[in-house]
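User: Hand in any protein.

Assistant:
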Amino acid sequence: MGLAIANQIAQGVILVLIARATGMALDAASLILLFPLVLVATMIPVSFGGWGLREGAAVVIFELVGVPESSAVSMSVIFGLVLGGAGLIGGILWAVDSRRVRFTATAEASTDGPRAR
């Protein structure tokens, strides 16, 4: 539960930073309250990773509070790239760690001596 809360806080911070970088004139509270609605749209299983759905939902939802389409799409694409980059780093770390565990288990099995049959 603690990691889930930390993840949500981290995503909120990332969103605020991306919004500031893209020049979006929207306060942090509105951004953090509205973006989960965008993420719900990505759960519809019709695209790879929610690409396209997230951008379309961002345009529709943020247009309601006066954010230009270009800013909403930019923020959504950058957010998707950040998530993809984080997932790539996590995948590499997982692969390296699982290989280390596999080699360690193989080494331990080979040093145990003859197996009893």
